Amino acid sequence: MPLEISRCARRRAIACLAAAGMCMAAAPLRAAEAGVSATEVVIGQNITLQGGKNGYGVAALEGIKLYFEAINAAGGVHGRKLVLRTLDDDNKAAVAEANARQLVAQGAFILFGSQEGGPSTAVAKVAEELRVPFFGPMAGSPNLRRPHSPMVFPVRAEHRDEFRALMQWGQRTGLKSVGFLHADSDVGRAHLENVKIAAVELGMTLALALPFKSDVSDAQLDELAQRITQAQPDLVFNHGSPGVYAKLIAKARKTRIKTTFMAVNSGSTQLAADLGRLAHGMVFAQVVPSPSERKHPISREFQAAMTKGRPGVALSYGGLEGFVTAKALVMALQATGKDPTRAGLVAALERSSFDLGGMTARYSNQSHEGSRFVDLSMYSRQDRFIH
User: Fold this and answer.
1) 179 near 235, Cβ under 8 Å?
2) What is the DSSP string of 116-181?
3) Staple partner for 127: which of 134, 179, 342, 371, CB 3.0–4.6 Å?
4) 3-class DSSP state of 109
């Protein structure tokens, strides 16, 4: 009998060990998260490059790559290299949505680093539907924050903060009436409402709303320029579309009006280049510090990285915004821990505040605000931005 018991006990022990071995073998499979391996984390990026024609997007992508390269050279995040897979949406929301779905289907851990309001909104829709975190949209659209989107985590300030900064500057210099160029779309009309709210709060008058379609013609721009000439607002600013805005300013300036033209950060370098001397004296809202000055730690960090990794390449706001956004993502992944999951990333973010080097990004389970940093720059007669 004792021998029989011993044999039974031995058989049960072997069976238990075998089962435990099977569980141990299966555990990594159950715990594995899409886009995460022992050596890599795959980052899925949809961005507006337009085949290289979108200068801000191209610069932002280079800033992202620059930061990721440095992190990977130092061993990655918790021993995993960051692999960036990038698709170009050509500034088309439908393409951006398809790109986002493709990136997730092909195993991206998260969606990351889009640009422009329409495409970013399309990516956010996919993120919420598929429950995949969408980190760092480089767009100022209000619907990336309101209503609250559990899967969407912007870094840069939204356009609402830029509008207010421009209007406050105008108010301090005696300007009282405002004209606003905006897309004739749901997003553009949401921006218009924010301008109206700011005007009331600042005691200013919204004298002129200037909506335009994506296929706006030269003749239609002539009509908008004529409306500015007739209304004579003290200041006019935009919410994006630097190419359209540059043409409108050039047409309006031919009438020798005294209106002050200002602009948000989107495409500020492109806008200044397109306008040439007409841009001299223009005030721009910027959502990152000056990339060429050394006042902020993040600017100094960017300059050192560019000197090492991109010698001879000009510093730019787009490059610095990409660099900052990549740095914020790395900090988020570090906070998530050694075994990252999508749910774990969201949980880590919602209890985090990141010091990015002179600008702070904050998140909670009620608000994914990100940064509210806005600085003002002026385009000088020496063809450079000064702060």
Assistant:
1) yes
2) SHHHHHHHHHHHHHHT--EE--B---GGGTSS--TTEE--SPPHHHHHHHHHHHHHHTT--EEEEE
3) 134
4) coil
Q: Report helix, strand and coil shares of the chain as percent, to nearest 5.
A: 50, 20, 35
- Find where tokens 């500034």 sit: 91
ω before 311 within 30° of 0 (cis)? no
Residue 364 structure tokens: 């909670």
d(CA 238, CA 247): 12
- The span from the first CA to the last CA of the chain, in angstroms, equals 92
The C-alpha atoms of residue 3 and residue 7 are separated, in whole angstroms, by 6
Amino acid at the residue 252 = A
Whole-angstrom distance, CA of residue 357 vs CA of residue 234 = 36
Distance, in Å, from the CA atom of 323 to the CA atom of 143, rounded to the nearest integer, reads 24
Q: What is the pLDDT of residue 29?
A: 40
Distance CA 86, CA 96 (A): 11
Query: How does pLDDT run across 57-66, given as a tens digit for each residue?
Result: 999 999 999 9
User: What integer pLDDT is reported at residue 11 of this predicted model?
Assistant: 53
